[in-house]
Amino acid sequence: MLSTNKSSEPLNEINLIINRIAHELINEFGKCKDEAMNLIKRSEVEESLMEDSMGFHETAYNWAISILTDHNDHEALEKYLYH
Hints:
83 residues
């Protein structure tokens, strides 16, 4: 997913967070892996983390909620509200 040639440590951390976000989208909100990764890509999570390290302090669950909110996925968010 990552295509830069910068230091591998931040990239590894970004990949770890992306995988955790995908895990939340799949397990908590019923997305398939391809759909979860597509949502993450369209939300530009990687770019956001590269620009602002404060995103590393958010939980994967909060990232998932934010992504679903940004994409107006009301059906998936209902699972959050009524979980």
